[in-house]
């Protein structure tokens, strides 16, 4: 059709040039002859109508549509003037449809930043459905359809409407990490065969360890006084602790739960023979055994306290933690060192410091 229409336009352009040298009288005679031929053609067609090809319709519409309706009705045509105007309207519709056609068919893609924000909201709030996420996005001023949020979640393999009534233990720990403490007893034996009990607590968010005390006889009075000291230390540090995780050991008296409740701390008991519910504290107990108690001969309770005090400083200020991206609880990640001379100097200082710690242990023994 485009080639046929171009041929018709060029042919009629040359025909218009041919009409320029012809006089008005000759043109009038030719017009009368053409009108009579149209009359003869209509008489021969009878009730039938002349058929125009699409390119003929487009050419006649573009040629005759600019004329006023009155002038268009005075012309002798094989079709009605309204038909010519309808052809022109169809021509404009097709032209508009071609110019407004999108480059990519279908729904436009979602902006990457909106998609990333949606996935972040789902990750930080696993109990939210796609309707709740759509409401939060609308509150932020982001206009997006609920079905688009649903599609984003389905493409990532996330259930758009999760179970809002079930909260897993891991989800509870992640959501309340900054308000969680975990405690446990650690047992060890000195060189003389005396059994010692160590009570320690750890902060879930920062992984900071606090060794509360050591004793050979963990009585109810000793445990109660130790928990009171912990509560006072937390109040002095301004820590907003809401939960304390512990096991069902008989060495924890019932009175400590009342003390913690008065301080606004709720006690959460782990399941029977489920150490993974207190995995962070159990992991510290294992580290303390492997890195300190299994490598050091503990002579008495005084020596144990000194060793635990030094290990607590090392654990909180120096030891790297994978959960904190190799930072320590009381030390952020340092900038990388690229100078070889400085690295050698640091290695020498580290060996000297380890020798000094060993010397202190020997003197304390």
UniProtKB/TrEMBL annotation:
Q: Which SUPFAM superfamilies does the entry link to?
A: Ribonuclease H-like
Family matches, as Pfam families: rve_3 (PF13683)
Which GO MF terms does the UniProt record name? Answer: nucleic acid binding
Q: Which domain of life is it from?
A: Bacteria
User: Would you kindly state one Gene Ontology biological process term found in this protein's UniProt entry?
Assistant: DNA integration
Residue ranges of every copy of the Integrase catalytic domain listed in the record: 158-337
Annotated protein name in UniProt: Transposase
Q: Which organism is it from?
A: Kutzneria kofuensis
Recall the taxonomic lineage recorded for the source organism: Bacteria, Bacillati, Actinomycetota, Actinomycetes, Pseudonocardiales
